[in-house]
Fold these 3 entries.
Entry 1:
Amino acid sequence: MECYITYCVKGYFAFNSENELISEKLFQEDEIINKLAEINDKQIVTEELEIIDEVKSDYDEIIIESNKRSSDYNNDKVTIKTPNKAGNYLRSNYDKFGLDSDDISKIYRKFAIYKIKKESAGEDKHLIQAVNSIEEIDDAISKLTETIREWYALYFPEMDVVKNNETYIKLISQNKTKEEIIKTKPDAFPQDIIDLEEDINPIDLDIMNNYANSIFELQKSRKNIENYIDSKMESIAPNLRLLVGSTLGAKLISHAGGIKRLAIYPSSTVQIMGAEKALFRHLKSGDNPPKYGLIYQHPQVRGAKWWNRGKIARTLAGMISLAVRRDVFTKTFDKNAAEEFKNKSEQIEKDNPFPTKTTKKRKEEKSKSKNKNRKGKKKRNRR
């Protein structure tokens, strides 16, 4: 004989093969959300165990609606089938069992809000926002610095010799006039600057200094967020931080949408994360598939010979997957991971000092396909 076990927000229900209710184990009102959270996390709750124990002596097979595996129940009679016929019957006839559809909908809404709050409270969510903030600040600083360089050149064109943007902004924000700037870094400027007299309206100079101060504050904010990301990575992903560094590790977590999602990605996905456009182009037009995405920013990949980058990127992606899984699941720390990857990449470079014929041929085919695409675009533009 078979029996069917299903559940809703109120508790667990057992039915026989004729859809007759044979047992029920209801949740306490103040524990409903917690029970649903445990079920969502693939845990076997007390009420589920109780109802199985109650029916197992009278039935040969127990068919359960569940998000778990049969082996999790440690019972030979248990079979998983989602949905099963009792579940469909219960959801279609809530009123027969004293259940209010509106009340059930309200509880599901509360549980959805609970899940959102729980997920947003994760440390990796703060990390993702910090990474996004860094990117926004970088864009803003780049545009604002370009503007201040053009503007300040009207007053002190010789400042163009200062190529580092951070130094440029710091000099302007901390020194009111060109004379003060020259005294601060006398070796940086030519000796034959013609006019050191005040040749600008003080109001214009104040505005430029204030503008530079705003950019300088943004630069300080960026450094603070960068330090925050480093400490956060050390806390939640020490293995990944050691292997690829705080910045790249945080970008990978951000791109995946969370550290748990990154942990369950296969290494082949990790390898091309960030190169989605190239992947879609490959699927659409048959161009060569991308060999790396964000992980190209790792110095061992970026600094490798072009014919070895794919091999090194594949090795790194595999080690990233292992590192993240240690951080999420086993909570162990491998202090030798970075050194191991360095040795592996050096060995790849040593074993492949020259490109193979196949590699050269692929590169030639790639350049030919690019030329064809360019010619095709030119023809379409002429039309």
Entry 2:
Amino acid sequence: MTPVPHRSHTDDLLSFIRASPSPYHAVASAAQRLEKAGFRELRGTDDWTGTTGGSFVVRGGALIAWYAPEGTPCHTPFRIIGTHTDSPNLRIKPTPDTGSAGWRQIAVEIYGGVPLNTWLDRDLGISGRLALRGPGGTTESRLVQIDEPLLRVPQLAIHLDRSVNDGLALDRQRHIAPVWSLGAAEEGALLRRVAAAAEADPDEVLGWDLMLHDIQPPGYLGAEKEFLVASRLDNLVSVHAGVTALAGAAGAAGEPAYIPVLAAFDHEEVGSGSDTGAQSPLLERVLSRSVTARGGSPEDWSRALAGAFCVSADMAHAVHPNYAERHDPDHRPLPNGGPTVKVNANQRYATDSTGIAVFASACERAGAPWQPFVSNNAMPCGTSIGPLTAARLGVQTVDVGVPGLSMHSARELCGADDPGHLAAILGAFVTSD
């Protein structure tokens, strides 16, 4: 087997993905790694006065983290890594217990742009969080993760639908309730099962944010194991790389030229329009407060923001060998060729020439390759949190991402080298002049 330069990083990424089946688990996994690197959690109701060093704030499925050692000037500009924790999937409805023809099923809702055929005939578990009744009218949030083959969305046999191969689209309105047992629908059955997994009393559960996930573990693929295959590569590859870069920056000696920041938002796959999304004031408020807490003035905040720069890291499209005509003929990224820099003249990506220069310089310092990406003019172009961050904060932004296949599928593919390349580049971006 050919040695993979970043195999240890990718091995660690596999562990991160296994532990992160939902945005809430991804945040918990990131927070745990940051705490090991010396970061500490700050709550919104805490007094942040005098806070220095590594800090992070958690809100649901979002995390904002930064590193400002003691003595760092309050006007020091930010270097922001923007990512998102959510992935397209199937989410459980508030009244979940349903069934048909003697089968017990659960009701789900489609979240984001899901290629529904990829979820058929897969062994599915349940993950997310429960909101529990606490003492004195308080509530607490508890994570739950059931990595068991509990549910399945069964495909109709070809004998009963001879036209199944005429098209891959699945009716979005019907036939997606997974089966999980035999018998009539039993109110509260799912809640009892999930509450038991979370070691909670079903009567304590006041609400939930639950979703399904493919329990097949991530792994390597290919003749020389040169590919990585997993659920939720979009966008846990970038979240993990951002955590790695931030933890590395915390170990750097001397006064930093920049304050490194990781912004891991939720709800990117549905437009980022929530209190934990990139359209919210979350990042702006946290960073502004971090300046004030260190004794900074409004002028310091304005200077820190004026000198700031953001790399928005999200997955990108590698050229598909069976559908090469869907890609721009002169921009065809391949796995293990390094992250792509995404360009769109209509500002679906926030990249411009100066942003390319900043990222290319970081690639040179990291000794890592990169590739340009432009969508085919005849195909609608996707977007990411880059333009939202740029518009919200007025911060110069470049959109980048690891190229892969099967984006938004229940199981995606990318090069085994590229996650490590991205982490090294982001590390150079947040620590170098």
Entry 3:
Amino acid sequence: MPVGELINQYLDHLRVERGLSGNTIAAYRRDLRRYVEYLDRIEITDLAEITASDVVAHQAELMSEGLAVASVARSIVAVRSFHEFALAEGVVMTNVAADVHPPKPGKRLPKALSVADIQQLLDGIDTSGPIGLRDRALLELLYGTGARVSEIVGLDVDDLTRVLPDPQLGLRLLGKGSKERVVPVGSFARSAVDAWLVRGRPAMLANAKHSCVALFINSRGMRLSRQSVWAVLRDRARSAGITQKIFPHSLRHSFATHLLDGGADVRVVQELLGHASVTTTQIYTQVTAEHLREVYVSSHPRARRS
């Protein structure tokens, strides 16, 4: 049977029997039209002539045209579904596209700030008042421990007053699945938190209507929320002139990336981040590998032709 004729029957099936929306059917029509155009170029007009290699070659051609992986995947799903329909209708004896799998989108690599950006972000905070002291302590602790925002906003004052006097003691964090881990607190974070507890937090509480045991509080004396942390980071990044889109998790990504750049073992970073599997942590090794390639290409005299 001619491919184009069966595609029209398949689109009718999608509309009448499966009740798909007009937009979805239009997307299938575009993807299958592209498939037919490819088959025409290789001089295939009959469905029985198509092989699995032809479907694979069509996918490779789509990739070579620079289409987004998601667009290629959608097109191949449409082709596979069309061949399934042909098999169900008894037009062919086998589904040649059954073993052709759509490409998987690559993992989105975390966007880490540079060490210089971190320095600019933190040093740009005016700590002459309680809000500045709080924000400096908050961001120093996020970057210095690699903690999740939920872990930091969940801290109470007692969690830090035990740790600050003794550099050997680590900070206990309660992570996902109520799993507890202990992370070191560096000297910069310790100094910033100590300044917040001594000079900032009492001053903020003096004018607040409420009081709570939370380490980080807002001007009303209540525990700082995750949304408030995002707002703090956004405003501080803007003030520091950082144009990169930044989120609280960016500091966690930066923590991990900078440790690995400095030679830390991936399993140590895994423990510090509280990842259940080292596989999750290894995504950061891809970031540092890319960084190394960029440095090599830009710095080595024989890395590329001018």
